[in-house]
Protein 1
Amino acid sequence: MLVFILRRLAQSAVVVVAMSVLVFAGIFAIGNPIDVLISPEADEIERAAAIARLGLDKPMHEQFIRFVDSALGGDLGTSFVHGVPALGLVLQRFPATLELALCAMLVAVVLGIPLGLWAGLKPDSLAGRVIMTGSILGFSLPTFWVGMMLIMAFAVTLGWLPAGGRGETASLLGVQWSFLTADGLAHLILPAVNLALFKLSLVIRLARAGTREVALQDYVKFARAKGLAPARIVGVHILKNIMIPVVTVLGLELGSVIAFSVVTESVFAWPGMGKLLIDSILQLDRPVVIAYLLVTVLLFVVINLIVDLVYSVLDPRIRLGGGRA
Amino acid sequence: MSSVTARAPAVETPFLRLARDFARSRTALAGLAVLVLIVLAALFARWVVPQDPYDLAQLDILDGMMAPGSLGGGGWTYWLGTDDQGRDMLSAIVFGLRTSLLVGVVATLIALAVGVAVGLLAAYAGDRVDGLIMRLVDIQLSFPAILIALILLALLGKGVDKVIVALAAVQWAYYARTIRGSALVERRKEYIEAAQCLALPHRRIMMRHLLPNCLPPLIVVATVQVAHAIALEATLSFLGVGVPVTQPSLGMLIASGYQYMLSGDYWVSLFPGLALLVTIVAINLVGDRLRDVLNPRLNH
């Protein structure tokens, strides 16, 4: 077990190092940020001063060494555009993204499990088929377009919900959250639904497949023969058993929801990490792009590591498989 | 000879059997018909639509932002409206489809070639090569496609060719994994053993014996991945890191219509979105049916 953990940790470390080299080397080639960041009216002396201040005059390998050196100290450089530490900027936006991602997961589970149950219990009914068609659409529709249609319908045409932004926030544990105020909650609904759509389709499919399988098991038949109320059979005997794959998959999908929030945040002008990333890419704000990518890669490596370790505790066969997981 | 050919229809080729199985689903047939129409329209865009949307001489700024169904200065009706520069949206959509399909198909083909080569090699070589390649595949697949594509495009910059590279880099791992799975099964079969006993070159065994027998699952994955690639390209272009303004895809059209949507001029964004949707759904319908038809376990 210890060998497995050590090997898995080493592998994670290699991934992080490889990604940071790749990201740094590539970002370097994006273009010339000097042209974007320094006003064209600036004279030669101002330009030279700005270039020296940003460290852009050094050769590439020196910039990289400087970058690694300061990265290990938690300093990923200063944003060219905002003039504040890039890592701080990204972390400051993290709660907004996390809030959005968790709400989307909640929507996916709260809507997806009942719908999947229904479709699994009555696969040939009209409702069952409508639910399954809907889930195929949920897989097919590009997230950003659905988001725009949601804005079109609920914000522009009906005027029920705000079109973008985070609304009023309230402080909890020193961080600002939207879900604590009525206004913030209203701002949260559309983006959360939008981000949830893909995972909702996934949950519906998992719950439906699980229900169809579990409903044929002997213990369900027995419960029925015993004369238990149908609600109790569905709520206890079936629901509990279909939750296992659903929970497993959702744990794995949290990272991908955070990555996909880039799209939803851009559509709804939600001030999270994803919006920051897109803005920074478009403005060639290198330190922020690097900080975002490293934070996300780290997040993923940690999530994958935890999932693997939990699995290997639960299922020893994975450990014996040579740690390919 | 002639008597042989006359009797030939009695023998059912695998392709004919597949086609007949496929045609049994009306939804899939409808999807295929729509898909053929879309591809034809995109291929012959110049002759299908009334206007070349990127020839500035053909644009009339006075026709800007006209609602669907308006009669334009050129004497024809703008069935889907016009954008702010007086561009006919129908023409723009057909030309946008061209870019979207081009990117999706070319990226998928490149990814397919790379994935197949790598996956076959992993399965055939086994041991350490296999371990190394599949470790790489696993690591890549543990990151969401959009994140990898964003990183690559942040590195490479904008451009049709760069989007194709990014999409291919995102997708190859799926094919590698798919073909390795089926190749591992096929590899242990007798005909491969026989070929090895004949001392045929490894390359020949891989390409002529192993590959053809691993194709069915690959075809299914490739079909579905074209739809994924098109959707991903649209998303990236919408975010502003995909194709350039000079060669807009459907995603780009949707993005440029976004600002007008909030003021109620829905058509600039809505119709390209519907075109994108219809394309993706049609491909998925065909892909779903192919999976059923090519799955030997479902064959009776």
Note: The mean pLDDT of chain A is 77.
Protein 2
Amino acid sequence: MLQAIKRICGDPLGLVGLFLVALMVLSAVLASVIAPYDPIALNIIDRLQGPSFKHLLGTDQLGRDLFSRVLFGGQVALKIALISISIALCIGVVLGMIAGFGPRWLDNIIMLLFDTIRSFPTVMFALATVALVGPSLSTVVVIIVITSIPTYGRVVRTQTLSIKSNEYIQAELAMGASTFRILSMHLLPNVVGPLFILASMDIPTVIALEAGLSFLGMGVKPPTPSWGSILNDGYNLIRNTPWPIIAGSIPLVLVTLGFTFLGESLRDLIDPKLRKSL
Amino acid sequence: MKKTDQKNATLELSRRRFIQASGALGVAAATGGMSQVVFADGKKILKVRAYGDLRSLDPAFSQGVIDEEIQSSIYSKLIQYKPGREWGYQLDAAESIEQATPTTIKFKLKEGIMFTGGHGEMTAEDVKYSFERIIAEATESTNKPDWGTLKEVTVDSKYEGTIVFDEAYPPAWNIALPYIVGNIVSKSAWEKAGGKVDTTTPSVSGPYMHKAWEPKQRTVLARNPDWHGGSAEFDEIHILPIDDESTAQIAFEAGDLDYTRVPLGSVSNLKASPPENSTLEEYPSLFYVWVGMNVENEQLSNENLRKAIQHAIDVPSIMQASYFGAAQPSTGIIAPGLVGHREKSLVAPEMNIAKAKEYLAAAGMEGGVTVTLDVLNKAANVTTAQVIQATCAQVGINVEVNLHESGAFWSLGDSSAGERYKDIQLILNRFSMAPDPSYATAWFVTEQKGIWNWERYSDAEFDKLEAAAKAESDNTKRAAMYEKMQDLMEESGAYRFITHEATPVIYNNGVKPAFRPDGLPLFRYFASA
């Protein structure tokens, strides 16, 4: 682990990525300690203020401290991203391995399912789902899980198909090893590597999707802070003050850059053959 | 055309263009350039913003304000709204008009009002046709209710007629004759067109004619050379559908519009630093916004809980946060300036924590309660919901906000669209309104339950007053009735009145605009400054 961090730190972009990701994670985890104000407490007298020592990023139309809302918004973004990607990853791995290792007919069914899900544009699918069941944090998680499973599933299936004909797998089969043992002891360790890279690259996408839905008022419910809802407030107040837009967009940009740089660095670390080839 | 004629025409055109351009330059120099758009393309063009696109040019199927802004410029009515700060009317096609008896209105048309397209002079037959086709079952007009108890129009002579009602219908003067259903169309033109038109019109008689419609781009009106009122002010009026007010404001500041409504949030900035050569005016609006409570919902059937919520909502905070201080708290659903407006509400606009807690205790919910608030997903609504959420929390009422997109929201209380109406607890709602109190109260009678009455409020006294007030011609008695109706609504605890909003408008100083008292534009009266 230390070796890996050392190697990432040796890559300037990786170092920047690691720093940004660490900053985001720490600020989100420690939000309740760092935030100077309650992110949902109204103070209408102090509304639409610019940055000052009292309010580092100013205040919104309800007088809420934007810095505190950005910190807690990070908590929401991180929570949604980690929960949804973890669930999608687990289901995707299981389904991908079953598709790759199982009988042909099962593979066809699972692939048909993946293709069906992927045929819906993510945003349209999200909007339709929210319109049907209503916006909430759990709805956002469910949407991300459903739309992310095929990505992970396909990668795992491809890896499984290429590994399952290897001699050591055939030897295990000949010795009467159970399918579960082969999948968990031999296939899983060989397919998870690329998935971590994929997942780290997906985190900013998921955060952007959550922010997009919240921007449209279809993400987390008010008054829960979200970078998307801060951006939406900023959009509506753009002629009054630029600060909510700035406050909402800076963390999105930094997080996207951070996870992308870190993901690329991880990819180089795990698979040097792909280094700088993309 | 001979060559020499062509040459002369070119010279004449050039000379005219030169004079117009010189004039435009002179005005531009004097006004700093803002009014140059009035003379764009060698024509005197007025460019204005509408919040939506044209939907119908048929008064029977007009979809409301957007269509009416166009129709009132191309058709004549017996009377038109009078521009200004107070509600009133002025004669248009009528030379005279009077309430002859409680159920009849007599009118006499001006002579010489011509329909375009060779459809002849306007007569009482055209008035009869225009009004009766709207109430005819066969027409299936969506605007039929605006004519209330209209029975028929009798033709007394070529220019004279009598509008006959089954029962007295005073709102006819406010929301029928000068509004959508008061537009007079040519009988012969309409019959030739099959009795119905869509986004084109075969004949008009107003100051402007419909020239073109580019969907989602613009509607172009051109001067009607045969208008009985003389020469209309502009060669053309370009009406641009721009949904977003902020976008419209940017277009105005860029000089692409001569008039637009601006967002409430921009008012303070525009007052502090208005665009060069422009004027900002603020008008009260007729819209009404309120928090409704479903009296048939298991939890909200507790009147004390409803009253606790009434007192827990701080309206002045909503005015500051959602309306940027540019709107005032309302006292009911009838706006200032209209018959029946209350000077004061029974529940003060400010929150009263002690009273709210008192009612909550009386409801047996001292330990707190959770309710849902359904809201249309628009910026002002979301902000309002969050203020309500915060102030209610202070008394122990936890409000969960449910945001809905437009389609889902407008079917929430509709009992024909499923069972969702049963789940409504609190709802933040906003209705538009025509300038007659009956237009506000009509939606809260018992028979509107599950249609527009989402609170499922039902009161026999309210229903009785609503029916009686519509037929009352004495304004003092009428006002008392409408005031009482709003008292009943408020006493039920099912309503917390929020605001009538406001209509801030901006126009360039090269234009002399004309507005209704609620700030809606009357393009037919717009002129050059």
Note: Residues 109 and 159 of chain B are 5 Å apart (CA to CA).
